[in-house]
Amino acid sequence: MDKQLRGAEIFVKALSDEGVEFLFGYPGGAVLHIYDEIFKQDKVKHILVRHEQGATHAADGYARACGRPGVVLVTSGPGATNAVTGIATAYMDSIPMVVFTGQVSTALIGNDAFQEVDCVGITRPCVKHNFLVQRVEDLAETIKKAFYVASTGRPGPVVVDLPKDVTAAVTSYSYPKTVTMRSYKPPVDGDPEQIHRACDLLLSAKKPMIYSGGGAVIGNASEELTKFARLLGYPVTQTLMGLGAYPGSDPQFVGMLGMHGTYEANMAMHHCDVLISIGARFDDRVTGDLEKFCPEAKIIHIDIDPASISKNVYVDVPIVGGVRSVLRELNQAIESSGRAPVDRATNLWWAQIKEWASLKCLDYDKTSKLIKPQSVIEALHKVTDGDAYITSDVGQHQMWAAQYYTFDKPRRWINSGGLGTMGFGLPAAIGVQLAFPDSVVACVTGEASFQMCIQELSTCLQYNLPIKVVSLNNRYMGMVRQWQEFFYESRYSNSYMDALPDFVKLAESYGHIGMRIDQPGDVVGALEEAFGLRDRLVVMDFITDQTENVYPMIAAGKGQHEMHLATDDRELA
Amino acid sequence: MTERHTLALLLENTAGSLSRVAGLFSARAYNIESLSVAPTEDPTISRMTVVTSGSPQIIDQIVKQLNKLIDVIVLVDLSDGLRVERELLLVKMRHDNDLEKDKILKAVGKLEGALLDTTEGVSTAEITGSSAQLDEFVRLVDSSILELARSGTLGLQLGPKSLNSK
Ligand SMILES: Cc1ncc(C[n+]2csc(CCOP(=O)(O)OP(=O)(O)O)c2C)c(N)n1
Description:
The complex is a heterodimer. Chain A is α/β, with parallel strands linked by helices. Chain A has 22 helices and 20 strands. Chain A has a six-stranded parallel β-sheet with strand order 3-2-4-5-7-6, with helices on both faces. Chain A has a six-stranded parallel β-sheet with strand order 11-10-9-12-13-14, sandwiched between helices. In chain A, strands 16-15-17-18-20-19 form a six-stranded parallel β-sheet, sandwiched between helices. In chain A, helix 1 packs across helix 2 (about 30-40), helix 1 (about 5-20) packs parallel to helix 6 and helix 3 packs parallel to helix 4. The radius of gyration of chain A is 24 Å and the shape is globular. The N and C termini of chain A lie far apart (about 75 Å). In chain A, about 55% of the residues are buried. The longest helix of chain B has 13 residues, at about 55-70. Chain B has helices spanning about 15-25, 55-70, 100-110, 130-140, and strands spanning about 5-10, 35-40, 45-55, 70-75, 85-95, 115-120, 120-130, 145-150, 155. Chain B starts with a strand and ends in a 9-residue tail after the last strand. Chains A and B meet through strand 6 of A and helix 1 and helix 2 of B. The structure holds thiamine diphosphate. Thiamine diphosphate binds next to helix 16, helix 18 and helix 20 of chain A.
């Protein structure tokens, strides 16, 4: 007879057989059998966070940076509910993650037992799938399925709820090498006929536009995307989630699009005649008013998720498949067609785009006596050679980081785009730094967001993570203040961050280094000093111009061609 | 532009699968007109019939989102082809005199239903038919109805096609 193992042992062995490096977690009654087994081994490294939200964001950051699923373990009840924000964050951005939640023993389920919540029910709308393991015999296979579902097709978080008695019960163990599920068959290759139609449409375009999204990053299609764009010579714009898949410093890149996209990107979107969307989902922050979106364009859409296609915007040529394999086939089709793009027309198109770009919509006042937040990001780019992993929180600082830190590589820009979760940045940086211990990792944050998961500074000390926190401290929930200025006649209701802590002392009390910078002339020097401290976490508190707004801006409900610019602060039509 | 569609699904017969489908409809504010579900000849698989309505674009999304659920094995929009749709109605009707009883029996007869029981001036009948036929029956006997239960629509494609072979 095979050796009999307890569920908790099976759990740890299965993670190790799955190749899991890090388990981000926090203990509690329902998972104590598992913690006991974690104690007895050293293959799977447990990272003790200070709040379960931090565990999910850290696992998420790890997954975004390295592509492997992030793994979380939390206890039942409050442990599970604390994890929900991080699960929803990963779900909205299609991040592969497996979250194990403790549960009360099967006999107690439904009895309102101590620390019981219906975890499967609570997480159902924000997971790709979830499982409740009711028998120890199902445990190993369920774990295998969880990793399979989380990391294939359109990735996403999977929750596995583990009743305490299941982790105590015994059975024989073998970890399945593969798993098939009759109800789950993720698509891979695109339909050749559609690929040909797309190729024809692209080669006859006069005003073409390439619109690339998070799918190009998650689908590891950076190389194929770059080749595709170079073959055609067409303008490329990327979504907030897509930055870096195509090099930001390339002349074909016209900037990010959407609510805070560049003038040229949004104008080009509005006027293009053929649009190809590559792993982007026509989010409302991108399209603005749907009625006014790309009125003249024939649209091609590559996406691994058929439900993303024609959801918000009608698509003429849908191609369901992995972005990478479809782009390969599309590149081949273009090369073997013997045709070239319509040069004369596209030259005129580029001339038009250059004219829009000459507005220099990202220019800002460089003579100010106050620190301009944009200048901090530009300096950050310089000091880190544009090669750092940048995580971010949510607000104005997030948009400035996206606009001014030119991302040339995929998976370097790590932010909560879909859910917009404040508190994401610091714990996400933990996951990134663990995945790449020798790389430079910076968290761009605001003084409001930073305080939402600030307890993780303690985790950073415990595991010696030399993250650099770049806080753009404007003493406001800046993004909220900006909306109140624009749409509520400057009634700054509850957006002022009163009673702020002394961030230098706060960093020090957590065992780190704190710096306060309030002179524009000190910005570069401070960054150089902080990034020179290779083995220390530094919190840089930049006291920035409180009145600065994020431009350009398309107000909600407006079309892409109706932007607010910084220079004149008036609407352009 | 609202269309009514009948969707037939095979899904894993697990504890959560029904709530995944129901949750999808409520989370995305889709209509459910009726929903019926029961195990098939293979006890690990349930068959569900959902009648829903919406614009063609919404119906397209409903089909795609349902297909995306990990528990859904196969889905066919029955409205795309030749099909049979049936619903079962169980109904209890009160009649205080022969005239009323006669009216009820006539209505049951018209729809080829069956009278199951008559006790103390209350008749119980069973009727199968399309939802529209059952609606018509309910209109005919409306004033006599004490209580009724409807199964929701069930559907099959006609001819050799089946969900099992898809
Ligand atoms: C958890 C959470 N609560 C509330 C919000 C709404 N929100 C969006 S941006 C923002 C202000 C962020 O302020 P700060 O972190 O200081 O960044 P700034 O905009 O000033 O750069 C708020 C409150 C959110 N996105 N997430």
